Amino acid sequence: MTLCTPDRTTTRPRVQRPHSPPERPRRFRVAGADLSASVAVFLIALPLSLGIALATGAPLQSGLVAAAVGGLVAGRFGGSPLQVSGPAAGLTVVTAELIHLYGWRTTCAITVLAGLAQLGLSALRVARSALAVSPAIVHGMLAGIGVTIALAQLHIVLGSTPQSSAVDNVLGLPSQLADIHPAALAISALTVAVLLCWPKLPGRAGQLVRKVPAALVAVAGATAVAAFAGLAVPRVDLPSWSSHALPGLPEGPVLGIAAGVLTITLVTSVQSLLSAVAVDKLVANRPDGGHGVPRSVLDRELAGQGAANVVSGALGGLPVAGVAVRSVANVSAGAVSRASTMLHGLWIVLAALLLVPVLDLIPLPALAALVMVVGIQMVSITHIRTVTRHREVVVYAVTVTGVVLVGILEGVALGIAVAIAVALHRLTRTRITREERDGRQLLHVRGQLTFLAVPRLSRALHQLPHGSDVVVELDGSFMDHAAYEALSDWTAGHLARGGTVETTGPSGARIAEPQPTTASACAAHTCCRPWTPWHNHQCGEQPAVDGTGGPEETAAPVEPRRTTGLHLASGIGKFQRNTAPLVRDELARLAREGQTPSQLFLTCADSRLVTSMITSSGPGDLFTVRNVGNLVPLPGEESGDDSVAAAIEYAVEVLRVESITVCGHSGCGAMQALLNGGPDDPPTPLRRWLRHGGPSLERMASRRHAWARISGRLPADAVEQLCLTNVVQQLDHLRAYEPVARRLAEGTLTLHGMYFHVGEAQAYLLSGTDEVHSYDDVFTQVMPTGPRETARAS
C-alpha cells in the first residue's frame, strides 16, 4: 500500500534549501525599536572604534571604516540579524603585530585575503565546525588577548608608548612608573572612574541616565575636562580622507603573510560565530521570547563576515568581526531586525564625515583607558569558574600563557594540544579496587574500560579466589572490545570453576553478565548478547510446530522474522517464567496505589520504538500515547477522533504529569507519506489522519523558519528534516491546548522534543527553553553521562 498525504486545496509547498535567504520586503521599513537601538549602538561603537585603532597603531580612520563596513555589509548580508560587527578588541594584538611587521598597506591586503578565505569556508559550510573548539580554549584565547591589550594600553595611560610584545611591556613598567605624566594619568583615571561608576548610579535618576552608554560618557567627560583645564595631552588627529591609505600588494615572506591570513581568519570566524550563538540565546531570553527574530544561520554569518573583511580591507579599514559588547547593547535596546545594525553603520559614516572637528578634541589617554578596561573585562571571572567546574583550568591557563608569551595562533595550538592530552588522560584513567563484603568479592571499576586498562583489569580479576561469589561494579560509560573480551573470558572460566559472577552498574542495578565467546557457545546461543535484554529477546526459544512445547520440541526451524500466535504465546510464557517474579511486587504496589506517572510520552506507533527501552523506564513511569506520525491535532480539528486530546487532558488535569515529551524517529513512514502525497490521493482514513501533519510540511518549506539541525549537522535527507521539523511543530500544537497553556504559565509543566535515530540507536533532545516558548531547532545528542553542549558562547 502506498502512503499518501491528506487532501489539500493548494499544491504541496516546495521544500526550500536550509540556507535560503529570507524573503525581501517590498519596501524598506524601520521599526522605532530599531532606530533607537541603532543610536545606542552607535554611541558605544564610536569611541571603541577609535580606541581599538589607536591600540593597533593603525590610522584612526581605519577604525571608523571597519565600524561602518561591519554595520552596513555584515549587517546586511550576515546570518545573525541582531549581531553587530566592527573592529574587535580580540583582533588588536594580531593587527598590531601585522602592522609592525609588514606595514599598514600590506595589513589591509591581508584583511582582504582573510575575507576571501572566510567566503570559501562559508561555501564549504563548515561554520558549525568552529563550535567544536573547546570553550576553555576560546575563553583562554580571549583572556590572553585581553591581558596583552591591557598591558600595552597601560603605557599610554601612564603617558608613554607601548612596546611590541607583552613581555617587553611588563619589563618596561618599572621605568615607566618612575616617569609618570600627571596630565595623561589624570585623564585616564577619570575615564576609568566614569566607566566603572556610571552603571552603578542609584535611584530613579540613575536609572534614567544609565541609558546613555558609559563609554560615551567617559570619553566625553574626559574630553571636556581636558579642554576646559587646558591639559597638554595628545589628542585624536584624523587626517583628511583624501590622504587615507588604501591597501597595496602584499610585501613580505609568503609564509608570514599566510600565517597572518590564517590567524585573522581563525580569530574573526570563531569570535563571530560564538558571538552569534550567544546573541541567539540573548534574544530567546527577552520577555517576548524573540518573537519575529529569526535565528542565526552560521554559514551565512561567516559569508557576511568574509564580505565585510574584503570591503573593509579594500577601503583601508581594520579587520571586522562580530562584537559581543555592541551586540548585547543592540539586543538589550530592543532591536527587532537587521535594520538597527545597518543604521548604526550609517551613523558612523555621517560622524566620520561631519564630526571630525569634535573627534579631534578627544584625548588619546581617554581612549587608551577605555580599551584597557575592555581588555581587563575580557578576563572573565565567570569563564574561569566555568572551566574550573569542568576541570579544564589547565587548558585555559596554557592557552592564556601561550597567547601572552608567544602569540595567538601558537597559544591556540598549545591549548588544543593540552585539551587533547586531557581528554586522553580521562579516557585512560581507570581505577580498579577490590574489597570483601558479606563473604562476596566486590571489584569496583571506575572510569572507561579501554585496551589500556586491560592488563590491570586482568590482574585484578585473576587475583580473585576460585569458586568465590563475585560482584563486578562497572562505573563508566564506555567499554571497548578488548576490555569486553577480557571480562567475558574471565567470567567463563570463573563460572566453570564453580564460582558466580554478577555484573552491576554504578547504582548497583544488575546488568547482563558477559557470556562466553567460544565457538561452541556461539553455536549454542547464536542470538544471545550481553549488552541488552531487548536484542532478539526470543533467543533460543522457537515455538514447536504443534504448539505444545518449548524449544526442545521444535521439529523444524522457524523463520526468525515471522510473527505467529505460537511465537506470541512463547513470549508470554517466557515473561511468566523470567520477568513476572521480578516485577510482581512492584505491579502489586501500583495496583493498590494507582498510577502516578511523571510524564506524558507521545510517540509514533512504529514497532521499532520501544519506549521503556530508550527511556530506561519501568511500570508506572510513563503515560504513553502512540499514533501514526506522533501527531498532536490542533484543538477543534480532531474530526471525530478525540483520543489524543483526551489523553492530553487526562494526563495534564488528572494525572498532573510534570512534563510532556513528543518523540519522533528516523525513517518515519508517516513523514514519507507527507512528502510523497498529493492533493489527488484517495480520501482514506490514513490520509485524513495525516492531514494533521500538514503544518509540519508547511513549516519546513517556509522561509521564516531555519531548518532543524541534528547534533551540529544538517539532516541527511528531506525525510529526516521533516521528522525533526514535525517534533517542533507538534510542540507548538500542544501549547494550543488550554490545560497545557495554563500549566506552562504556572511553571508546573515543561515540554520536551526528542528524536530517536533507529539505525544509530541514538537519542537526541531538542535544545531550548519552555519558559520563553522558544526552541533552537537543534537536536542535541544524549551521551551516556548526559546531554552534550552544542552551543558555546564567548
TrEMBL record:
Main localisation: membrane
Region annotation Disordered: where it falls in the sequence: 1-26
Keyword Transmembrane helix applies: yes
Gene3D superfamilies: Carbonic anhydrase
Keyword Methyltransferase: no
Alphabetic keyword roster: Membrane, Transmembrane, Transmembrane helix
All residue ranges annotated as the SLC26A/SulP transporter domain in the record: 33-398
UniProt topology in membrane: Multi-pass membrane protein
SUPFAM superfamilies: beta-carbonic anhydrase, cab, SpoIIaa-like
Spans traversing the lipid bilayer: 35-56, 102-124, 136-160, 180-201, 213-234, 254-279, 335-356, 362-381, 393-424
SMART domains assigned: Pro_CA
Record Pfam families: Pro_CA, Sulfate_transp
Places the protein is found: Membrane
Domain of life the protein comes from: Bacteria
Function per UniProt: Catalyzes the reversible hydration of carbon dioxide to form bicarbonate.
Sequence similarity: Belongs to the beta-class carbonic anhydrase family.
Annotated protein name in UniProt: SulP family inorganic anion transporter
